[in-house]
Amino acid sequence: MRRRLSSFLRRRRVLAALQLLVVGVLLGVLAYLLRDVWADALPRLREARPGDVGVAVGVLALYYLLFVLGWQWILAALGVRIGYSLALQAEMASMLAKYIPGTVWTPLARIVWVRRAGVTQTSLVLGSILLEAGLSAIAGVLVFAVGLVPVGSDATALVPLVAFAAVVAVLIHPRVFQPLARKVFGRFGGTEPPVLPYRTMVALLVYYSFTWLVGGVAIFFLLRSLGGEPGFETIPYLGGTAAVGAIVAVLSLFAPSGLGVREGSMYGLMLAVVSEGVALGATILNRLAITVVEAALLALGVVLWRLRRHEPKEALETSHWPEPELARRRS
What we know:
Order of helices and strands: HHHHHHHHHHHHHH
Number of helices: 14
Structural class: mainly alpha
Distance between the termini: 43 Å
Number of domains: 1
Strand content: under 5%
Radius of gyration: 21 Å
Number of strands: 0
Helix content: over 70%
Low-confidence stretches: 311-331
């Protein structure tokens, strides 16, 4: 047993070291390729307008708060209720866990956190995470496609995104997701998670599309803070750009939190609406902003959860979520 554990830890250390090496090389290559742009980007960063940066950070925080509601919605539809403060902690902890080399920490952080609420069905939590990621990705591609129209940008990048969204749509379809989850989770002794009703999935797609528009507003103000002048009609495109960056970050398993990969994709897409210096500066500000906001919201969630622990028991048991249909059927 000790030998197996030691071997496993060695493999994890090697994987972590390789990931850090890849990130270092990737960031170095990007810095070299953009060496002529830094002369324009750095002065813009030093002279960034605090008001616009503050608005961008506030809107970004709103995006995350809305995103947490989406996950709560999914869990409620699957028959599980957790408080918002705990859901916020779990979501932000998993976001920050992406920076840790290794691919297991992101879902593991959320699983461990929700156990505080007594939710021990690991397969159900994993299923909710997969559904959240899939629905959010599809919504992001839809927003990006709509955003291309007013911008008039080349639609070449849309082809692989549409193909990716189509594959994800098939995988999260109830008739595919349920048997696939049964097979995968069954190998580890878990039970298959329940599926979402079609109506709920469509409603969530609309909801996540709205959250990406909110994310687009955040990037809009980041660009403005650096002297960029994007029009309001570019907000859907910028929201889609944020979605593409998030999708690339998830798919790039070798780069913790998609470091470098996310930035490269967003920088390239933002060139359709602003100059190179503004795009590079906004890319850097965006990474700093999302990290700071995630850490701040995690701390906020912890504070709210501790305050809520001192509330009367009756208040703790009250939920604003309606009794899910699935739970009613089982009772």
